[in-house]
Design a protein that fits this description.
heterodimer, A: Rossmann fold, Rossmann fold, 2 domains, five-stranded mixed sheet, B: alpha/beta
Chain lengths: 379, 302
Amino acid sequence: MPQADRQLMMGNTACMHGAIYAGVRFYAGYPITPSTEVAEGCARELPRIGGRFIQMEDEIASIGAVIGASVAGLKAMTATSGPGYSLMIENIGYAYMIEAPCVIVNVQRGGPSTGLPTKVSQADTMQARWGPHGDYTAIAVAPSSVAEAFTETVRAVNLSERFRTPVTILLDEVIGHMQEMVSLPEAGEYPVVDRAKPTCDPADYAPYGPTENCVNPMPAYGEGYRWYATGLTHDPRGFPTERPDEIVATLERLRHKIEDHRPEIDKVRADRMEDAEIALVSYGSVSRTALQAMMLARGAGLRVGCVQLQTVWPFPLEPLRTLLQNTRKVIVAELNMGQIVEQVERIVPDGGRVHSLLRYDGELITPHQLIDKINEVST
Amino acid sequence: MATKILDLPEEEYMLPGNRACAGCSLGIGLRHILKALGGNCIFAVPASCLTVLGGMYPTSSVRIPWMNVVFPSTGAAASGLAAGLKAIGREDITVVAMAGDGGTADIGIQALSGAAERNANFLYICYDNEAYMNTGTQRSGSTPIGARTTTTPAYGKRQHQKDVPKIMEAHGIPYIATACPSFPTDLYDKVKKAVGKQGTRYMHMCAPCPSGWQFPAKDTVEMGRMAVEVGAVILYEIEDGAFRLTSRSKKLAEQGGLKALRDYIAPQGRFKGMEEETIDHMQAWINRRWQQCIRRDAEGQA
């Protein structure tokens, strides 16, 4: 990429550009630190390209408008932080249920409650999986650089369209607010996925029917297909049902449409794992620390490798199982009181091999903390 | 009888220094509100500049019990505080809910409306700096037409501000008042009057903001005065349904009217480049409200 195309950019701004690149033309949001730059960017950019930006009266309204715009046929996104994400939860559950594709950016800060508005955290990881009540399978991605804030946002929009589901982007305050040199890609460099539209006779259309891959084509309202959308558990035509067989079919389809397509969704990045005896597993901002610690450890002759979870949910079981099978020790590092480490423990049979380095004081884990941990577990 | 400036109580309930920006009108307003309350009060405050002004240990700026609540719940939290105090027999304590314009007109209006419909026993004060200033100036339901914010970057906001006191009036609550810290005795008297009443009382205080409105920090008091002179802010109270202009707005009505809106707009960066048509819209909106207020004031005296 020629130097002239490179620019210094904030993670939140890169996320906004990634959304627009992926075809997002609707943003509804509400100011909250440390996510506001995503909204401010959309307020500037979307009207110029025929998109719509609405500042709503709160986060419940923001996600409500996003779902409305999605059903009207637009790719739609909102961005927030912990307290706002908590307010959005009921509507996110509704989007799972009616299968409205949409993207929710959570630039994580310390919690619970108002917590630490300007400090980094990864304590919303489990909330991205289990926020709304009920059974469903969630997708969440976690960028670890400004460039990834762009590319992972493109991927998140694509996944939401491909699987007709809400996707959460777990940014954190460090990645959201840091500035790095990036080159934004040209159109066509990254694939952009659009939701499948029905082609059948409108009389035969069933918005929630049993399909081979569990994902039904989705018309926009006004395109001639009748679609009754409801948060109530529904039958193939979308109407409320209390029939046990239909309830089970609907819930299982919601699960299978994600679980059966894990290879399309799983994404991990492995560095120096070929001969690694100690694996550092991390995601988001901590993955930067892990890379630095790995290089320092390698310099000292320790065979350390890194695994970064770019897809956090569904938890990338198979890729991780393969990568970790020959390691002697696994260190999971995250900015919370231990959320992903429990997932790793599930797939590493010998529990004694898994260690964690946790930090939840609003600061980033340092490379030296990781080096100390590596020394501790390797003796 | 209106209180004179020299008759304000000496006692201070704010400590010297606070974390607000230089020139913030909120400190002036809160200082006089607290003098009127006399210390026997509990504050419920949502996410806002006010929660920042409250400070961090050990540099807190307030000497009263202070409950920082979540953004949408000010009216609800105050409802609970008031009911709890009643249950333990401490109705002598005034519950004060104090929120910004975003926390009142936008995210907080559901809780406030619910409380007012129940006539919950507290004083709600909205300090209106006309945008989300704590997160760096995004438009709110109370941002005036034409004002540029970071989420109305191209032409400024295209809609008029929401008239929250009018919404509150529709709830039939016993006391509603507007105020401005540039007229501290008017503000003081209104809080005094509100404290003497039971049920939901609502005050809407204009809060000029040097950083968000983009004017020099030394001009805060002058900016508040100008807001009243041009009628962007009208000082009035509605006591058990009876409307009355007060203070400078009363004098302006008696002495022949408002100054031109342009005098108020020109010194503020947020209105820079405002289109003539938009200024005319805003002037027409102000004139309409002003005439309504004059009419209602006259009806009240008849």
